[in-house]
Amino acid sequence: MFTHARSEHKDGKGEHDHAHGRILGPNTELIFSLACGALLVVGFAIEKLLPAAPGWLPIVCFVGAYFFGGFYTVREAIDNLRLRRFEIDTLMLVAAAGAASLGAWAEGALLLFLFSLGHALEHYAMGRAKQAIEALAKLAPRTATVRRADGTLEVPVEELVIGDVVLVRPNERLPADGFLVKGSSAIDQAPVTGESIPVDKRPVDDVAEARARPDTVGSASRVFAGTINGAGAIEVEATRLSSDTALAKVVKMVSEAETQKSPTQRFTETFERIFVPVVLALAILLLFAWVVVDEPFSSSFYRAMAVLVAASPCALAIATPSAVLSGVARAARGGVLVKGGAPLENLGSLSAIAFDKTGTLTEGKPRITDVLPADGVPEHELLSVAVAVEALSDHPLAAAIVRDGRARLGGREIEEATELKSLTGRGVVATFAGQPVWLGKAEMFGQDGITQLNPAVKASIAKLRDAGRTTMAVRIGERDLGAIGLMDTPRAAARDALKRLRDLGITRMLMISGDHQKVADAIAKDLGLDEAWGDLLPEDKVAAIQKLRKEAKVAMVGDGVNDAPAMANATVGIAMGAAGSDVALETADVALMADDLRHLPFAVGLSRRTRFIILQNVFISLGVVALLVPATIFGLGIGPAVAAHEGSTLVVVFNALRLLGYRDGQA
């Protein structure tokens, strides 16, 4: 079988790797190719322009051209034959040797010149894509300034241990993942999360708590290796080893993604397995054309070699890997980790996306949306009582009432409540200004000796619930003060992100949530989603994704932790905010490093562009072969065939490299 040596070897060695033996540095292959071309031109000029020159002189030039043009080709052929692979390198050598044996030294040298030049330029182009990935690894500094018991010293980042306090000066790159313990600054997180605006960071409130539970540190205090400090000097306590930082994991996973084959790549490899034996059989038949056609064996041999050169599926072999490599590298530079060709292509062919609600479409933090006092009750009284009582509670809704209630009250003094008692699942009882206070669900009233709410407050609660609000009723003594409505508010960027996804061709977007159906409906309507499925347990979310997948290619977007089962059942699982979550990095097919939904349209748009370029490349590759094979059968020479053959390969690679310049908003 012959394919192009650019395809991955099973032993893990990638494309032509001439790193060993580069005598004249990284451009040795190009220099050798140009030397081949120069000797070819000199030999041809002597042969045509100096007929009186000795006959051996142009031959010496051509032999020199063979040496420089065939140097790396011979090495590749030997490597491939050791792996029992008959590839295009071997074929080119056979064709060049055949041309020399027929006396066509110049044509054989031209073949090797074009082939070696094509290789050199292709390696340069593919090297640009690889450099985009390797540049990620160089973002983190090599040393760190550490404060230890014996003073401040500079150490290699590999020697950092968890708990080290690292000093970061203004405008320096951070050497470690961790949390701020001193100082404040605006951190440019674009290298890791893709966020375009620096993020303000401040020290953690409780260092001991952050040290004990680093995964719970909020984004306002968490920092990543490779990001850039702003104008303030800061001190960071390291929470991960240098080999385990978010940046290190991204680099590792992006490198692994290069080897993951996409559906199109698997198709082209299957096609090659069928196509190559057919071409070999055709070449063998053409080798015996002199038996039935009035021509010498040398002409039949030459034609057979030309057909083999023309039919070699080099461009097809590189068509998909080059685009995948460029697409994955561009995504990583934009704060999106795509784990290989399959997720990249699948992401580009989606027609439906399902979103988890909490923390994905919404902030994951409830806020007061409505304050409805009873008749004759001032709003500030209702809020003052609610804030005073909830200040004693550690319930998540209590924190929202205290935070937003204080904001609505301004600087108004609030008397303290006492004697808080929890009625599990229903609400709380406390004492405020010497009177008993009941605060909780409407269902709490009318049970266990607690009198019913008055009809007006009941009506207010029903109205809020119909609007998808979580409700709290408040009573002090014998008076019903009114109702408070809360809701997990949509992210500021969600509407714009969803609109851009529709513009990219996502025709169905829905939300799946464990919240009540009315709550889910309210948020879906607010954001402009097509549907909302509420009251779902984790196993129900899996069933919902399985149902959707039967109808269309669907992505599941979540936090990568409690959504992991549903994400695993989707065509593509997408995790948000993965820079701070090991689980999300491991479970998702695509990870948005920043906790920002606006990176999703970028990822989908890039994937769609990648699919388009892959299809372009496959069409170019097969089209050139379809034209060259009959042309060589009917007399096209090896030289022009090689020129077209290598030209199509270069077109494919440089077409793929356009993805490195992809800008968000391109279709």
Instruction: Give the low-confidence spans.
Output: 1-20
Give the overall shape, derived from the CA principal axes. Answer: elongated
Helix content range of the residues, please? 40-55%
Secondary structural class: alpha+beta
What Rg do the Cα atoms give? 34 Å
Subcellular location: Cell membrane; Membrane
Keywords: ATP-binding, Cell membrane, Membrane, Metal-binding, Nucleotide-binding, Translocase, Transmembrane, Transmembrane helix
InterPro entries: ATPase_P-typ_cyto_dom_N, ATPase_P-typ_P_site, ATPase_P-typ_TM_dom_sf, ATPase_P-typ_transduc_dom_A_sf, ATPase_P-type_domA, Cation_Transport_ATPase_IB, HAD-like_sf, HAD_sf
Main location: membrane
Short descriptors:
single chain; 667 residues; alpha+beta; Calcium-transporting ATPase, cytoplasmic transduction domain A; Rossmann fold; seven-stranded mixed sheet; six-stranded antiparallel sheet; 23 helices; disordered N terminus
